[in-house]
Amino acid sequence: MEQVHLTHEKATLLITLYAKAEESRLPGSLLQDRHAAEAVTRIDYDFSSLGMRQDEMIGLAMRAYTLDAWVREFIAAHRGATVLHLGCGLDTRVFRVDPPPEVSWFEVDYPDVIELRRALYPARPGVQLLGSAMSSLGWLSQVPTDRPALVVAEGLFLYLREDEVLSLLRTIATQFPSGEIAFDAYSRMGLALASRNRMFKATGAVMRWSLDNPQDLEAQVPGLRLRDEQWLYEEDDGRQWARYSWPARAVVWLMRRIAPLRRLGRLLRYRY
């Protein structure tokens, strides 16, 4: 069993890992993430203490599923691309997406998180693990800059300061010839609500960065252009919608129809 001693934003990776692992055990699973399910059994941690609800599992899985689809789409259009999976935690996206060997894939997170990844997951050709804080951009010197690059950051930017987010985005937009950046973002109201979630609050993690208007980033980061904006709880797949509890469906139905509530949390994809 792997011992974990994670606090603050690092500890939130246990929440998202468990959500994806447990969603993969549900009938009609979106992710079918056997690597996450196996990892949970190898970590010495009482995941039941999270008190995670099925609706929360499904919501986090839907977020990951959309980002996975965007990654697959980018790779299909750029077979020799570079993928930067920032704040990767223990997410098993590289196994779910299963990129071809000509893709250069980089997993980036704190050094102790990367060591935990090494212990839990098998090595994979074409995948490099980089241990570094996101606020330090020195790790970018280890990434080739002669290919289109996709940056995917799930559940990361909300924990960074605004200047850290902008510095990272500006550096990426200038260092690589072209590419996309995909991530989740929350309005100020959405961030305030997310920070009160009992599971994330228990970690002591501080949520800092919010984004009310996605077009604002186009002005703040030269070369960035919004491509896609998707609400976190789209109803496009009726089968997934039906998996929510009736109370959750009622809340999401209401949020979908009131613009300020719909903007609480979104998935964004930018070109550069």
UniProtKB/TrEMBL annotation:
Protein name, entry field: Class I SAM-dependent methyltransferase
Coiled coil regions in record: none
Keywords: Methyltransferase, Transferase
InterPro entries: Ppm1/Ppm2/Tcmp (IPR007213), SAM-dependent_MTases_sf (IPR029063), TcmP-like (IPR016874)
GO terms, molecular function: methyltransferase activity
Source organism of the structure: Achromobacter pestifer
GO process annotations (BP): methylation
Pfam families xref list: LCM
